[in-house]
C-alpha cells in the first residue's frame, strides 16, 4: 500500500501537470461531456423518429389489409387475403413457433369483435401481445406499442378496428420487427463513437495549442518579472495590442512597476538626504569640539562652544525623532488617538508659544477670532501639525512681515488657514514641497537653527491620518497660504 502511494507521488511529481496541460484537459473533458449529452439527445430523438415512421408504415399497412377484407351478410371472408399475405393461417390452431422468426415475413392477426381469432401469420404466435391491444381498439382508440417475442425480440405492434355502420366488426393487428431499426441505431452509435473519438483528439490538440497561445503573454510577463527580480526596475511588461484581460493585467503591472520605481527612487533619495542631514550636525559638533580642544580657552569661550554643540545636538535629536515618526508611519506602527479635541483652543495655545519666535524675527503673528470647533483626533499630533505650519511660515517670512492664522467651519469640515507674506514658492516646486528633504533651492545648505526638512512631510502625514487634506497656494515674493481640511466627525 505504501509502495503504491509512493509510486503515485513520484508520478505526480515527475509528470509536468502545467497550467497549460490542465486547461487543455479541462476543455477536452467539458467538450467530451457536452458531446456525450448531445449524442444521447440525438440518439433518443432519432429512435423516436424512426419508431414514429414505423408506426406510420404500420398504419398504412393496416389500412391496406382492411381494404382487402370482404364483408358479406355481416361475416368477414378471407378468400383474397391468402393471396395478399402468404403464410396467413386461417385456422384457429397454433402453428410451430420454433420455426417462426419475427424478423422475417409479415406479422398480421385478425380477430372478430368478440376477440375471437380469425387468422394470423405464423410468426405472430411468438408475440406477447397484451390484452389492451385488443380491447382498446374495440373501444374506438387505435393501440400501438412495443412488445416482445418468445426470443425477447422487440416488435412494434399496431391495432385498429374495422367498422361497419359505426359498429366494430374486427380488429386488425400489424407488427414489424425492430431488429433492423436497432441495427441501424447501433451502427450510428459506432459511427458517433469513432467520430467523437477523432473530435476529442482534435479538441485536445487544439486546446493545448490555443492554451499555449493564450499563455504566451504570461510567459513574457514571467520573463520580465525575472529581469525585475534581478534589480532592473526600469523594465516594463509588453502590452498586448488586443484589449483583453492580458492587456489589463499588463497595464496594471506596469502601473505597479511605475509606482515601485518611484517609491524606490524616493527611498534612495530619502536615505541619501537623511544621511546628509545626519552627517551635517555630527560634523559641526566634531569640528567645534576639535577647535575647542586645540588650545586652552577661557570659560566664556568654552561656554559658547558648548552652547553651539548643544544646539546642534538638539537639532540632531529633533531630526532623528522626525525620521522615526515617519518610519513608524510608513510601517503603520504609529498609534493615533481618537479623542475629543477643541481645535480653536489648541490653535490659540500653540500660536501663543510661537509668538516668541515671531517676535525675535520681527514678524507680526496674528490670530483671527476663532469659532469654537470640536473634532475627533490625536491632540498631540494636531499640536505638532499646527506648530510645524507656524514654524514654516515664520521661518520663511522676512523681518517686518506678517503671519495670519484663521479658522473656518461648516457642517462637515473645518479649514485651518495659515497665511504669510514670506518669500513664496515657485509654481514648479509646489507639487513637491511635502516630499521629505525636498529643497526648493538644491544648492542651499541649511544654516544653524534651520528646520530638519521634514516639517511639511509630517504635516501632510498627520492630516492624511485624520482623513483630511491640505492645499497650498503661493506667489514668489508675496507669500504662501496653507489650508488644512479636516472632517469634524470621523
UniProtKB/TrEMBL annotation:
Main subcellular location of this protein, as a coarse class: membrane
Swiss-Prot/TrEMBL keywords: ATP-binding, Cell inner membrane, Cell membrane, Kinase, Membrane, Nucleotide-binding, Phosphoprotein, Transferase, Transmembrane, Transmembrane helix, Two-component regulatory system
Pfam family, one: HATPase_c
GO molecular function: ATP binding; phosphorelay sensor kinase activity
Top EC class of this enzyme: transferase
Transmembrane segments: 24-43, 188-211
Chain ranges of the HAMP domain: 212-265
SMART domains: HAMP, HATPase_c, HisKA
Keyword Transmembrane attributed: yes
InterPro entries in the cross-refs: 2CSK_N, CztS_silS_copS, HAMP_dom, HATPase_C_sf, HATPase_dom, His_kinase_dom, HisK_dim/P_dom, HisK_dim/P_sf
Domain of life: Bacteria
Annotated Histidine kinase domain residues: 273-490
Catalytic reaction(s) noted: ATP + protein L-histidine = ADP + protein N-phospho-L-histidine
GO terms under cellular component: plasma membrane
Protein EC: 2.7.13.3
Annotated compartments: Cell inner membrane
Name of the protein: histidine kinase
Taxonomic lineage: Bacteria, Bacillati, Chloroflexota, Ktedonobacteria, Ktedonobacterales
Amino acid at each position: 500500500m505504501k509502495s503504491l502511494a509512493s509510486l503515485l507521488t513520484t508520478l505526480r511529481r515527475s509528470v509536468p501537470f502545467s497550467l497549460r496541460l490542465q486547461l487543455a484537459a479541462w476543455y477536452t473533458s467539458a467538450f467530451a461531456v457536452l458531446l456525450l449529452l448531445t449524442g444521447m439527445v440525438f440518439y433518443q430523438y432519432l429512435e423516436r423518429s424512426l419508431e414514429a415512421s414505423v408506426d406510420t408504415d404500420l398504419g398504412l399497412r393496416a389500412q391496406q389489409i382492411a381494404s382487402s377484407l370482404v364483408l358479406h351478410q355481416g361475416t368477414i371472408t378471407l378468400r383474397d387475403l391468402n393471396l395478399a399475405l402468404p403464410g396467413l393461417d386461417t385456422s384457429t390452431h397454433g402453428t410451430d413457433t420454433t420455426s417462426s422468426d419475427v424478423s422475417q415475413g409479415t406479422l398480421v392477426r385478425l380477430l372478430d369483435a368478440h376477440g375471437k381469432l380469425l387468422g394470423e401469420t405464423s410468426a405472430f404466435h411468438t408475440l406477447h401481445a397484451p390484452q389492451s391491444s385488443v380491447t382498446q381498439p374495440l373501444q374506438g382508440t387505435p393501440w400501438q406499442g412495443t412488445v416482445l417475442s418468445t426470443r425477447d425480440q422487440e416488435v412494434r405492434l399496431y391495432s385498429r378496428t374495422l367498422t361497419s355502420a359505426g359498429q366494430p366488426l374486427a380488429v386488425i393487428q400489424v407488427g414489424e420487427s425492430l431488429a433492423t431499426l436497432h441495427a441501424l441505431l447501433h451502427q450510428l452509435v459506432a459511427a458517433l463513437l469513432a467520430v467523437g473519438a477523432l473530435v476529442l483528439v482534435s479538441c485536445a490538440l487544439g486546446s493545448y495549442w490555443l492554451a499555449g497561445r493564450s499563455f504566451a503573454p504570461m510567459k513574457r510577463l514571467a520573463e520580465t518579472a525575472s529581469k525585475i527580480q534581478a534589480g532592473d526596475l526600469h523594465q516594463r511588461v509588453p502590452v498586448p495590442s488586443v484589449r483583453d484581460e492580458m492587456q489589463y493585467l499588463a497595464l496594471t503591472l506596469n502601473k505597479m512597476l511605475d509606482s515601485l520605481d518611484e517609491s524606490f527612487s524616493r527611498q534612495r533619495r530619502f536615505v541619501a538626504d537623511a544621511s546628509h542631514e545626519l552627517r551635517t550636525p555630527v560634523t559641526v559638533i566634531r569640528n567645534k569640539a576639535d577647535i575647542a580642544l586645540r588650545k586652552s580657552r577661557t570659560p566664556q569661550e568654552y561656554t559658547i562652544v558648548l552652547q553651539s554643540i548643544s544646539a546642534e545636538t538638539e537639532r540632531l535629536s529633533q531630526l532623528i525623532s522626525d525620521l522615526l515618526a515617519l518610519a513608524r508611519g510608513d510601517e503603520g506602527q504609529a498609534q493615533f488617538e481618537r479623542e475629543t479635541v477643541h481645535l480653536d483652543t489648541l490653535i490659540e495655545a500653540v500660536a501663543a508659544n510661537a509668538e516668541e519666535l515671531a517676535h525675535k524675527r520681527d514678524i507680526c503673528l496674528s490670530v483671527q477670532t476663532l469659532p469654537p470647533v470640536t473634532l475627533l483626533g490625536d491632540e498631540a499630533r494636531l499640536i505638532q501639525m499646527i506648530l510645524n505650519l507656524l514654524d514654516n511660515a515664520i521661518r520663511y517670512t522676512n523681518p517686518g512681515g506678517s503671519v495670519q492664522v484663521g479658522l473656518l467651519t461648516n457642517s462637515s469640515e473645518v479649514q485651518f488657514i495659515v497665511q504669510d507674506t514670506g518669500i513664496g514658492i515657485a509654481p514648479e516646486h509646489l507639487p513637491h514641497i511635502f516630499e521629505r528633504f525636498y529643497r526648493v533651492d538644491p544648492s542651499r545648505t541649511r544654516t544653524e537653527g534651520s528646520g530638519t526638512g521634514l516639517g511639511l512631510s509630517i504635516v501632510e502625514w498627520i492630516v492624511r491620518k485624520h482623513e483630511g487634506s491640505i492645499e497650498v497656494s503661493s506667489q514668489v515674493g508675496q507669500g504662501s497660504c496653507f489650508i488644512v481640511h479636516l472632517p469634524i466627525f470621523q
